[in-house]
Specification:
The complex is a heterotrimer of chains A (333), B (385) and C (547). In chain A, 71% of the residues lie in helices and 1% in strands. Chain A has 15 helices and 2 strands. A two-stranded antiparallel ribbon of chain A has the order 1-2. Chain B is mostly helical and 385 residues long. Chain B is built from 17 helices and 2 strands. Chain C is 30% helix and 24% strand. Chain C has 547 residues and is an alpha/beta fold. Chain C is built from 17 helices and 21 strands. In chain C, helix 13 packs across helix 14 and helix 14 runs parallel beside helix 15. The chains are: A mainly alpha (333), B mainly alpha (385), C alpha/beta (547). Chains B and C meet through helix 1, helix 11 and helix 12 of B and helix 5, helix 8, helix 10, helix 11 and strand 17 of C.
Amino acid sequence: MTTAWIAKNRTTLIVTVVVLVAAYVFYYAKHDIAPSMYTSAWGYAIPLVLAALVGVIGERSGVVNIGIEGQMLVAAFAGFFAAAYSGSLIVGVLAGVGSGLILGGFLAWTTVKWRMDQIIAGVVLNIIATGITSFYYKPGKLLPGLMPSFDIWPLSRIPLFGEVFFTGTSIFATLAILAALFVHFGLFHTRWGLRTRSVGEYPSAADTAGINVERLRLINVTLAGSLAGCAGIYLSMDASSSFERNMVAGRGFLALAIMIMGAWRPLRALAMAIFFGFINAVASQLQQSGNIDVPPQLTGTLPFVVTIIVLAVAAGRVRAPGAVGQPYVKGDE
Amino acid sequence: MSDTPTVAEQAAAPPPSEGSPSGDRQPDRQPLAFLLTHQSGVVIIVALVIALVVGAVLIRLQGVAPLYAYETLIKQSLFVPGGLTRTLQKTAPLVLTGLAVVLPLRVGLFNIGGQGQLIFGAMFGAWVAYAAGGYGILGAVLGMVAGVAAGALVGFVAGVLKATRGVHEVITTIMLNYIAAGVTWWLVTGPLQAESSKTSGIPQTELIPDSAQVGAVAKIPIGFVIAVLLAVACWWMLSRSTLGFRFNTVGANKHAARYAGIDIKRIVTLSMVFGGGLAGLAGALEALGTLHRFEPAIGGTLGFDGITIALLARANPLATIPAALLVGILRTGAAGLQFETGIAPEVVDVLLATILLMVSIPVLGKWIFRSRADKVSAASTSWGN
Amino acid sequence: MTEVPEYDPTPVPTDTAPEHLEAIATTDAVLELPPEKSGFGEGNVGEVLLAIDGLSKSFGSVKANIDISMYVRRGEIVALLGENGAGKSTLVNQIFGLITPDTGTVSVRGDATPIKDPRDAIARGIGMVHQHFQLVPVMTVAENMALGHEPTKAGGRLDITSARAMVRTLSAKHGLPVDPDTEVEDLPVGTQQRVEILKALSRKVDLLILDEPTAVLTPQETDELLGVMKELAASGTSIVFITHKLREVLAVSDRVYVLRQGAVVGEVETAETDARKLATLMVGREVVLSIDKADATPAETVLTITDLHVKDDRDLGAVNGFSLEVRAGEIVGVAGVEGNGQRELVEALAGMRKVVSGQMTLGDLDLTKANPHQTHHAGVGHIPEDREKHGLVAAYSIADNLVINEFDQAPFARNGVRQFAAVVENAERVRTEFDIRSSSVHQSSGSLSGGNKQKVVVAREMSFRPRLLMAAQPTRGVDVGSIEFIHRRIVDARDAGAAVLLVSAELDEILSLSDRIAVVHGGKVVAEMPGRGADRTEIGRLMAGDH
């Protein structure tokens, strides 16, 4: 925490302080509704964080993944039905994460090895996901039990934060926070991160430095799929205990917008996801309290509208990794 | 110092595409749209075959004989009474949603918002046709115009954001899909809900009077005729007009387009407006011709099928007709297939996704022809550009 | 073709400097080396470090390298000379493992195992400084230099402090100062090149390949670099460098291989050759003497640029108060090292880039806020510096490219409908007039050779008889025949009354064509002088900012 570091990250620090202060003020001022709003905001944000991290890892490596929606859907499906049929939650979790990995591998292989257009690959993934999950959908199945929730003592004693983040949390919530921290640390403080970023910014420099660009991209995109799997299982096995067709409802795409607004930085994406969750909570709150007479169908579109507005403002100011979207082709091909 | 070596030296100077040593990006590759229009039809046939095999596996796993299933599919869509008309009726909006993707694709944009543009067009088309019902054919025409306008508006939002702020159209169009779904859902369960619907509980708008509906002439749906005409018009525009030249140039090399004095922002926005309008018309035709009202499920898979069709058609407007026909046959037949064999219609999704996958692998062409395949470049996949 | 000499086991005394092995007869001075820098360290002076035998590589039907054989000894500096397209880059890319050869072997210290990839090449002691820098723009110097062999602390943590220290050490050792913490994209081009060189030297290197290392340097910086090369060779590092500048070849190399159309056409000891012989070898014929031009008879002022300010892509000032006048019937050459605002200047003049302040007028038309469509129709012809990016649409036919900025005007279009007959007719006429070699006007321009591509661009811009012709790097990457042709046409345009603004990083081109020269540095004109009798060294000094 040197003075130079503080100077460089001035804006972020100021914004963080302001937001924290405002959050606490609101918490104490509106003690009746604030805690539940915050909790619902965080609940909404959890899958978004995980999904956004999938996007961050992929794009930092130079690969666009618009198939996160499909990955989440298949994982939600696989996790739920595997658990329901096998009678074991653990089997469900493994199935969900596994399917995320497999689809990640699919995307990685088709775009890196087969040089398929990355957006088309994502579109194909989404179509297959919707198709297969609807094709094999069977109503009336039930989960064998509930996912565990627990308190993390002593963190749960912190006012506001303790209540929201560390009381009655699920593993996914903890996972989301840890994943964001890990990916941040990985990208900016490890050798893997430096190489990944170079591959996403200017792959030929990485190539001539002796790094295997294709292999790194394959590994990163595939492994990132596990996070998409977690996001999916959260939806069908934790946040709710059912699977509905098309239940991901656009969250995979929202996550991409969050990734952009977070400037491809994990911790900012985390913050953005929580921000979105909060918007959603505000919308529901307004609805319930009857203060504003806006029909629920319209408030449901609020996250999407906000996304467009924020992107319109912010998109010009953030810079994507330089080589995103282009397959890397070596000199003699 | 004699000048002789000078000229020779210059001859050996490095070429511009490797030029600026300040670390330029890799040179622009062949854009997707160009690649698509120049790849071979054999690849498509091979892709079709592979997809049929994959589908066959799925069908077998359900305990049904694949050949029988495929036979039923074709029979149900083409050979039962009224089947051909139904198929053509289904193909019409598919041609249009295909075109809705093709036009922006030629400019280098991915319009994934066909679904939302279509629903909006359907809603407003239905309403205007209902409101103007007393005027007969005029009602139908006004309904179609309203549909085009509504869809164009949605497309415009995405287009202008991309052109002026550089917001990637893939995200905005998807967001708009959800927004359009929400807005139309609200309208159909609120202000525009039909009286009968309030009691039946099925969200619908009022029935469009017969005179304003769009029917068929000699078994060929008028909607299909309109769609074919538009496909031809789009083809003509792209290959013969100066506007089309602008579209193609921006898609082929936007830097050269700027150099040539083409207003890139205008063309980008216009392509999305056209795309949105075409999808909106598809929606209006569905409302006017097929359902005769608006229902939330009106879109179905039309929007996303449009993407598949555009890519199968290699971004060529005329080729959207056979591609749409293929999808139309599959979709129409799928309902009958379910009835006869119990196989869920989503099997068609898997078939189409497989075709799309196979057709989009550049290496596939290489394997088939053992020659250098062109390298694919995404139309525009960088979020900030 | 050339015989690889037998390995000579007789040791040579280590205090013998390489210069003593050759009689020096080159015209330019060879830098003096301090005595303590001579000697090789381990190894023998005759040891063959790199041997290439029968190397061939084709890309589809194009034979880039045909049966090439060459060798490099320890401590030698070998130059690879050749026209654009001769196959030099392809050759060195195979040595560095970026490309795999079709046939033939590359042996490093006698070991003929194929070099799989850059990692392998680096492990075997080969380093490369690329013409097109392989640096990640958003990363710092230290990060770029560490890439691929990053120092780590416990647990995989990146050890940036060590990386920084490494940069400073190397920087001092080779006399190439760089700041480890600056992002590469913020560095001027000459400094970026230093980073690129240090990056190569940060590994253990026995053979260093340099691909067109002086393309972006001022004459003074070039001399410094040549000095560094000499020192490296003296301390035992062999060097292979690609260049098209005969001056450099003669100044610093021990031997030269001349490539033409993919094959080695000559291997000479530098001491035994001269510029003329090398040029003839490079081109395969006696090269026609320089352009014959009459004196200029300038008329009225056509272009007036007043205190122009333009920003670059990163929002920094590129053109900073540029003022210049160009009259009809004269060629004004803007001389300067790349990266001093020339690109932004020309783009602003063409209407492709926004002007922050200042003014540009063409006659009495104010073009400051004009877009490319308007400037074109005002009579400005623009031969862009990057023909692939701006000048041509590779997918389009020659015919379409020839009307790319007139496609919506009569006779090429009527009421928004294109008139193909007129387009083709125009193309046929222009193709003949400008001698564009192609099978037909319908051939896609992407498949043309560099020279013919440039001819399409030049033809297009000249065929509409512009009032002002702007030519940016007009003969870069172009074969000799086309260069002569293009230079001729530029002078013809001048003689027909056009005002010509020539922007070129090739000083010789400027000197040969310009009636008046303006030297640019830091985004503004630092000196103007008549073209006739201009002093090359003086200009070099001004280009470097020494004024």
